Amino acid sequence: MNAPLTVIDMHTAGEPLRIVTGGYPDLPKGTILQKRAHVRDHLDHLRRILMFEPRGHADQYGALLVEPDLPGADLAVLFMHNEGYSTMCGHAIIALGRYAADQGLVSPAGDRAEVNIECPCGLVRAEVSMRDGKATDVSFESVPSFLFARDRTVVLSPWGEISFDIAYGGAFYALADTQQFGLEFGRDPVSDFVEAADGLTRKVQAEIPLSHPDAEDLAFLYGSILTDGRDAFSDQPTRNICVFADRQVDRSPTGSGVTARLAAMHARGQIREGETRRFESIIGSRFEGAVASRTQAGPHDAITARVSGRAFYSGRSEFVIEDDDPLAAGFLVR
Predict the structure, then answer these.
(1) Is 242 known to be catalytic?
(2) What is the pLDDT of residue 1?
(3) Per the residue annotation, which of 89, 119, 121, 242 is the catalytic one?
């Protein structure tokens, strides 16, 4: 680390996003997956400094802006968290859409600004609403998303047989109803949901191989989403909690998770193109989501989803390391 790390902190529906604005060295040219591999293999100490205590926490999330490789991309981003680097992050896209409009990285046209963001999973198009020259609501249209596996079961101690789907929304998730675990939103502690979701993730990772038609680097289970079971279309919100990476809890409804849920709902005939659902997080914050279009992802019937929310600024910081600090590299208590 040759220079201070500078960041702007935001949150989307309560979920943090730490945007790196300075301090990283220049990356070699290449595809975004090659850039991600370089950062993972050579610069991971910087992720730990930014995500871990004493500068971050076990549920911190970050975004490193890198040089775009895809034609038409306004910016490119690598996502980071407590375990490593993810392929897609909807709450980060919403925050970065506002950030790009506010920082002049794109030029608004009237009351809208379009931001094309290159992610490890592909190009994601965000639309930013402008009011009196200020960015407000942000929507994005996802990469092609699909139901990968339906009505699979595993035996999971101490809960017994658990039924779940696996769906892709820029990342792969296992989707399961909380009632199978005897859990209820608003009654049981978050720690109980974390135990159940993390247990499901580890079991599915061990037993079910995944594949993605675009790149093998995308074919891993990112986490599990436990839902209230209200998948059929309704004007009432449906609640879920996403536990991903190393038992990290998303405070938002999870943008890529909403996309995965919409893909599963559509495949099951529970939502039609253009219908809007509201998705509620563990803290009660909300995203709106709809099936934007039908498409194909290799052999999979797929959709693109449109997900909307708001992001807010929470601060800016400059992080340094003192040579004699024994804890400078970062640590996690849990």
Answers:
(1) no
(2) 65
(3) 89
* 4 SS3 class: coil
What pLDDT sits at residue 134? 87
pLDDT at 282: 97
Residue bearing tokens 């592909």:
122
Distance CA 296, CA 310 (A): 29
Angle between helices 44-51 and 32-42 (to 10 degrees): 80
CATH 3.10.310.10: which residues of the chain?
A: 5-142+313-318, 146-309
Kindly report the backbone phi and psi dihedral angles of residue 256, in degrees, each rounded to the nearest multiple of 5, phi listed first. Answer: -70, -25
Of the candidates 51, 80, 61, the residue with the CA atom closest to the CA atom of residue 332: 51
Task: Enter the CATH code of domain 5-142+313-318.
Answer: 3.10.310.10
Take residue 149 and report the two structure tokens written for it: 């596996």
CA distance 134 to 221: 37
Mean residue pLDDT of the chain comes to 96
**Dihedral, CA atoms, 47, 287, 94, 256, nearest 10 degrees?**
50
**DSSP string for 108-149:** -BTTEEEEEEEETTEEEEEEEEEETTEEEEEEEEPSPBEEEE
pLDDT at 334: 84
Average pLDDT over residues 158-168: 98
Rounded to 10 degrees, the C-alpha dihedral 239/243/249/255 comes to: -60
First CA to last CA across the chain, in angstroms?
A: 25
Considering the entire predicted model, what is its pTM? 0.96
Is the pLDDT at 132 greater than 90? The verdict is no
pLDDT at 270: 97
**Tens digits of residue pLDDT in 190-227:** 999 999 999 999 999 999 999 999 999 999 999 999 99
Q: Which fold has domain 146-309?
A: Diaminopimelate Epimerase; Chain A, domain 1 (3.10.310)
Contact between residue 202 and residue 208 where contact means Cβ atoms under 8 Å apart: no
